[in-house]
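Thread amino acids onto this structure.
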């Protein structure tokens, strides 16, 4: 009888061990990330962006190796990477972005006004009278040159002749094409830019001339929003993977915040 019980326990233990082994083998061995190879401060092929560092943090915490699918982050990016199944995670997308299932947000940032400190412009509002005479640079987004929030807001105020557009895609043969907007402020080609905070914050820190950054006010201007929650994106059907990253973000949030702050990302309290 005792022998039967022992054998029974051994059998249960064997089944449990086999189940544990199977569970471990079902965990992916790699964290497969979709990213742009030429888009600092977010990512590049040398792993120098803050999204690269956050991806590396996730991979270490999950005990996985980190693999990348590189693709320029413009029209077709999601279709040719995540949807195609060549990778499983986009590290930075706006919360609620319809092409993916988004995780809980891991930071909130804002558009900012960027101006040379020595020019004395201290613009922080879309209604500042100085915008009527300043040369104002804004990003144009999309292959069809659709407008950014700033372009719409300035046009609503009758400001068009003094607004200069810089395509967010730029010349991809150059490093980090969206940074040309900040370069224009540095060189004095424009007086002030309205730029996404993480981009402006990073390049302001490395600018050869001091730049002032001031959050755009109001945060909501008609249909336009200037503050965004940023999350991670997975395929719509990947609910289990989304839940996993939700837990990782919650657990690693202090370390994620530290990475963001080290890149000069202007963080807005959630």
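Threaded sequence (270 positions):
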């Amino acid at each position: 009888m005792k022998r039967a019980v022992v054998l029974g326990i051994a059998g249960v233990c064997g089944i449990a061990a086999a189940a544990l082994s199977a569970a471990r083998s079902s965990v992916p061995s790699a964290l497969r990330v979709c990213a742009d190879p030429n888009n600092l401060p977010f990512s590049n092929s040398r792993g120098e962006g803050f999204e690269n560092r956050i991806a590396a943090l996730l991979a270490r915490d999950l005990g996985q190796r980190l693999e990348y699918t590189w693709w320029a982050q413009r029209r077709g990016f999601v279709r040719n990477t995540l949807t195609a199944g060549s990778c499983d995670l986009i590290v930075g997308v706006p919360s609620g972005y319809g092409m993916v299932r988004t995780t809980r947000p891991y930071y909130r940032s804002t558009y900012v006004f960027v101006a040379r400190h020595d020019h004395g412009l201290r613009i922080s509002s879309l209604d500042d009278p100085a915008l009527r005479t300043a040369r104002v640079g804004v990003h144009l987004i999309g292959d069809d040159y659709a407008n950014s929030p700033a372009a719409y807001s300035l046009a609503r105020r009758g400001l068009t002749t003094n607004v200069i557009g810089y395509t967010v895609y730029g010349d991809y043969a150059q490093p980090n094409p969206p940074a040309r907007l900040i370069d224009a402020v540095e060189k004095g080609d424009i007086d002030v830019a309205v730029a996404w905070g993480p981009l402006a914050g990073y390049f302001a820190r490395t600018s050869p001339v001091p730049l002032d950054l001031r959050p755009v006010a109001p945060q909501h201007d008609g249909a336009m929003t200037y503050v965004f929650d940023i999350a991670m994106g997975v395929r719509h059907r990947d609910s289990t993977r989304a839940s996993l990253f939700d837990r990782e973000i919650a657990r690693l949030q202090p370390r994620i915040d530290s990475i963001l702050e080290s890149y000069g990302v202007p963080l807005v309290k959630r």
